[in-house]
Amino acid sequence: MLAPDLRVLFCGINPGRVSAAAHAHFANPRNDFWRLLHAAGFTRRLLTPAEQFELLRERVGVTNAAARTTPGSGDLRKADFADAAERLVDIAGSLKPKWIGFVGKEAYRGTFGERPELGVQERRLGETQLFVLPSTSPANAAVSWGERLRWFRELANRASGS
User: Fold this and answer.
1) Distance CA 16, CA 107 (A)
2) CB 43 within 8 A of CB 60
3) Residue 43 lies inside a defined structural domain of this protein
4) For the chain, first and last CA: distance in Å?
5) Could you give phi then psi for residue 144, rounded to 5 degrees?
6) Which CA distances in Å does 123 have to 33, 86, 107, 119?
7) Taking a C-beta distance cutoff of 8 angstroms, is the pair 130, 99 a contact?
């Protein structure tokens, strides 16, 4: 789900089995992604995964760092991320999103081979700024809703002027 001049392009780690079967990003009903987008103000109403293309009207897009479907992100191999950085550099150069928001530290780590902290990253892809959010996966239940929402709101506030 790409388009030119997005406020934010969210980059998940890879499609899980539920998302692959639904042909939709973050389709697991226990994944908080769609609820967090709405609660943080990225969308005017709560969207379902089946309505993912409505995000483009809000100047928001979604992609993945790795394309291979797995039962969990722990099943990914380094080779699954072989072209991730180059692909995002190309997207940043051609479509010029203001921000790329990595949904989880592992999406960033798989892409760039570096362990990030949450928040704004020093690295940029041209004019595109990078931000790392907590994972919205049900496997990341140790991070509370409130903490996840705080990071999503921070990105929403930074991207609001874009």
Assistant:
1) 13
2) yes
3) yes
4) 19
5) -70, 160
6) 24, 14, 15, 12
7) yes
